[in-house]
Design goal:
5 helices, alpha+beta, 95 residues, 14% strand, elongated
C-alpha cells in the first residue's frame, strides 16, 4: 500500500484517485489511522433515506405525485422535452 500524508495526496490528488480506481492500494494518513482510497458502488436504492432521511413510503408518494404531474403536463401540452441542451430547455421554459 502506498501511504501518503494529506499534503502529498492533495498536491497530486487526481493521480492518486486514478491509481486507486485502477486497483492500486492507496492510503492517506489521518492522525494514527490510514484511510484507504478505493472505488465504491453507489446504490441508489437507499439514497433518499441516507441523504434526506426520507422513508420508502415518502419516496413512493413523491414518485406517484411526480408521475401524475408529468402526465398532467403532457395532456396540457406544457411538458418540455429535454434534448440534452439545458440552455435550450431553460429558454423554452422562460417563454
Amino acid at each position: 500500500m502506498q501511504t501518503l500524508s494529506p499534503t502529498k495526496a492533495r498536491s497530486n490528488l487526481t493521480f492518486w484517485l486514478k491509481a486507486a480506481a485502477c486497483g492500486e492500494d492507496v492510503g492517506i494518513l489521518y492522525g494514527d489511522q490510514i484511510i484507504a482510497l478505493r472505488p465504491v458502488t453507489v446504490e441508489s436504492t437507499d439514497y433518499a433515506l441516507r441523504e434526506y432521511g426520507a422513508t420508502e413510503a415518502e419516496v413512493g408518494r413523491l414518485s406517484v405525485q411526480a408521475h401524475e404531474e408529468i402526465q398532467q403536463n403532457r395532456r396540457s401540452g406544457s411538458l418540455n422535452t429535454f434534448t440534452g441542451n439545458l440552455e435550450d430547455l431553460l429558454a423554452d421554459s422562460a417563454h
